[in-house]
Design brief:
With 249 residues, this protein is an alpha/beta fold. The protein contains nine helices and nine strands. The strands form three sheets. The chain has a five-stranded parallel β-sheet. The chain starts with a strand and ends with a helix.
Length: 249
């Protein structure tokens, strides 16, 4: 996959993309990440990329020219991307389903906004998707771009060692993941659940599924309404609710 990131601050990406899983994916040639400085496409001597908004108002707005010319350069050198993504508060909330959708693309472009926003003509004529990572305000689109690229790249075949790793993670089936334990068996008096030491694969599977459902019910109950629950899941949840009722009564 090719990932082009249009940004005013390419230096911000040095750490996250030069370490751990993303670094190894780049070294293997599975992911190519290019940081493109929007200022390089400014046509004035001061390399400015913003201007005052028509109609008045506070702050500055990113001008359309540098972004349109940056996209022209991408088209000329790498062809047309599959998706052009603007990170902005008005976008669709990012989730695991969207990450899997984007991971199927061959070429993605991310536009990192700043100031009071970007000239609307960019969104209307260049952008295919607008994405937000949450209902809060950040100084720019760089941090959201890092989050989305990380979530997408780890789903590309070959990036993670075991395919099961991505299948069993939180949100992969709409639920939170079950708890994990490793050695030592006992630490400071805290013990690993006995079922995980039993070697009984079916009991372990059921325990993990129950824990996943319990965690989701306790922390993110709204996810249950959207999750693809099996008949077994519904039985587990029914038994949990019965236990809760008996405790209350």
């Amino acid at each position: 996959m090719i990932v082009d990131i249009l940004t005013l601050f390419p230096e911000m990406f040095a750490g996250p993309f030069d370490a751990s899983i993303i670094k190894r994916a780049r070294e293997k040639g599975l992911v190519e990440i290019n940081l493109i400085n929007i200022r390089d496409f400014s046509r004035n001597k001061h390399r400015t990329v913003d201007d005052t908004p028509y109609g008045g108002g506070a702050g500055m707005v990113m001008a359309p020219e540098p972004l349109f010319e940056a996209m022209d350069w991408i088209h000329a050198h790498r062809g047309r991307p599959g998706r052009v993504i603007l990170l902005c508060p008005a976008g669709r909330p990012f989730n695991q389903e969207m990450a899997a959708e984007l991971a199927r693309e061959r070429h993605l472009v991310f536009i990192c906004g700043h100031y009071e926003g970007i000239d609307e003509r960019v969104a209307e004529h260049l952008v295919t998707d607008e994405i937000t990572i949450g209902d809060y305000v950040l100084t720019g689109g760089e941090l959201p771009a890092m989050v989305v690229v990380d979530a997408v790249c780890r789903l590309i075949p070959g990036v993670l060692g075991e395919r099961a790793s991505t299948v069993e993670e939180s949100f992969s089936d709409g639920l939170l993941e079950y708890p994990h334990y490793t050695r030592p068996r006992e630490y400071r008096g805290y013990c690993v659940p006995e079922v995980l030491l039993s070697g009984h694969h079916e009991k372990i599977r059921l325990w993990r599924r129950r824990q996943s459902l319990l965690r989701t019910l306790a922390s993110r109950p709204e996810l249950l309404a959207r999750a693809s629950l099996t008949d077994e899941d519904r039985k587990i949840l029914a038994s949990v609710l019965e236990e809760i009722k008996s405790l209350i009564s």
